[in-house]
Amino acid sequence: MKHAVQALIGAQWGDEGKGRVVDALAKEIDVIVRYQGGANAGHTVIVEGKKYVFHLLPSGILYPNRLCVIGNGVVMDPGQLIKEIEELDPSPDSIGTRLVVSNAAHVVMPYHKKLDFLSEMSRQKSSYGAIGTTGRGIGPCYVDKYNRMGIRAEDLTEPELLERKLRMNIEEKNTVLEKLYGAEALKFDELYEEALEWGCFLKPFIGDSSAEIDEALRDGRNVLFEGAQGTLLDVDHGTYPYVTSSNCVAGGCCTGGALGPARFDRVIGVVKAYCTRVGEGPFPTEDLSSVGETLRRNGAEFGATTGRPRRCGWLDMVALKYSVMVNGFDSLALTKLDVLSGMDEIKVCVSYEMDGYSVTRFPTSAHLMENVTPVYETFASWKEDISGCREFGALPQAARDYIQYIEKTSGVGIGLIGVGPGREDTIFRDF
Ligand code: IMP
């Protein structure tokens, strides 16, 4: 086996096409772990003509005999997870022991979604502005986790403990809802009943995920940690405050998936051949002209979770080099190269200009980033349809030059190249 433990991380602002890379790797992977985020993520997988949309379940669940883990670092929306399990198969028993939800994963409660919505509305009216969240309750759930009052998956199966925790939460949330937002108060009975039902359904899946991962490794099975969102949305290392509330970077695998750093032997960064971003926040290479529109149309850049049109622009090497630095990528997977076919030219941001100075270090704070102007290098494009290419040498010279430029500038080799939407539209180069 080439790699026992791998991490697959989004190198940009999410939506890099991680799902397709997981799909390409999945046939050789035994255990797939989600370690952060929640139902804010979304990917669509089409297998034998049937479309599946997953927000919480790792897509590896579609492969027989794969163990799928929802780690402790994930915030789990039980209603959404149950829906995905039920849609997968009318009988959840058929998943059997192939799904483990960490007992320590925090539960996204209906009030987290309500608070997410109300907080966004209130920020919208302030001079600070909204974040543009997915509305899935992610931020408020992590707030409760770090405030040590969250409800964890294991609590759903302990009626008496659940009651105490829920009463404490409802008391606090109702003060905020009524006094701060003038919203309707929550009713304990309804929420408690619903939470007990979730517990009954999910009980067979809730377990000690770290022990399961360790046992799998001891048995000689290999593990892939699948990141959600991307490095530039990481709560510590992204463009704060326009970020999500978890650690999307490689380091997040250790805490959110419960495995020590020395046990990882490869970190793969997934990079789209251009850039996209959903929600608010700085995006230096955003193209608001017809070029951005073309990228959006050709790349079908609409959110899998919210359906929002994604903001589109050119590849940003300042951001990518930063991403390589904070994640320590060993290899890159370059997706959606075909979307650049037929463009008049391809631009790549090589540095920023800020207050008359040239900046090559990525400034992570949003207020500094608002003031940067991208400096571009222009590359020739290619007209050919590249979706049939299966080898690097078969790509047009201009495409090869683009790839080699990214490798040279980032210092990391590109092992996989996506040349079309289909599973088979992939070039593997020592991956
Ligand atoms: P939240 O994660 O819903 O709190 O949203 C915070 C920010 O992260 C917003 O800008 C969202 O658009 C963005 N975001 C969250 N999940 C994803 C994702 O899966 N892809 C791209 N952007 C995301």
Summarize the helices and strands and which ones pair or pack:
Blueprint: E1 5-10, H1 18-26, E2 31-34, E3 43-47, E4 50-54, E5 67-70, E6 75-76, H2 78-88, E7 99-102, E8 106-107, H3 110-125, H4 138-146, H5 159-180, H6 188-202, E9 206-207, H7 209-218, E10 223-226, H8 251-257, E11 266-272, E12 275-277, H9 290-298, E13 311-313, E14 315-316, H10 317-327, E15 331-335, E16 345-354, E17 357-359, H11 366-369, E18 373-380, H12 397-410, E19 414-418, E20 426-428
Parallel strand pairs: 1-10, 1-11, 2-5, 2-10, 5-7, 6-8, 7-9, 11-15, 14-16, 15-19
Antiparallel strand pairs: 3-4, 12-13, 16-17, 16-18, 19-20
Helix pairs in contact: 3-4, 5-6
Inosinic acid binds at residues 14-15, 40-41, 131-134, 136, 138-139, 228-229, 233, 242, 244-245, 278-279.
Kindly summarize this structure in a few lines.
The protein is of the alpha/beta class. The chain has twelve helices and 20 strands. Strand 19 and strand 20 form a beta hairpin.
Structure in words:
The chain has 12 helices and 20 strands. It has 431 residues and is of the alpha/beta class. The chain folds into 2 domains: 5-94 and 208-428, Adenylosuccinate Synthetase, Chain A, domain 3 (Alpha-Beta Complex); 106-202, Adenylosuccinate Synthetase, subunit A, domain 2 (Orthogonal Bundle). The strands form 5 sheets. The protein has a 10-stranded mixed β-sheet with strand order 9-7-5-2-10-1-11-15-19-20, with helices on both faces. Strands 14, 16, 17 and 18 form a 4-stranded mixed β-sheet that branches. A two-stranded antiparallel sheet has the order 3-4. It starts with a strand and ends with a strand. Bound molecules: inosinic acid (IMP). Inosinic acid (IMP) is lined by residues 14-15, 40-41, 131-134, 136, 138-139, 228-229, 233, 242, 244-245, 278-279.
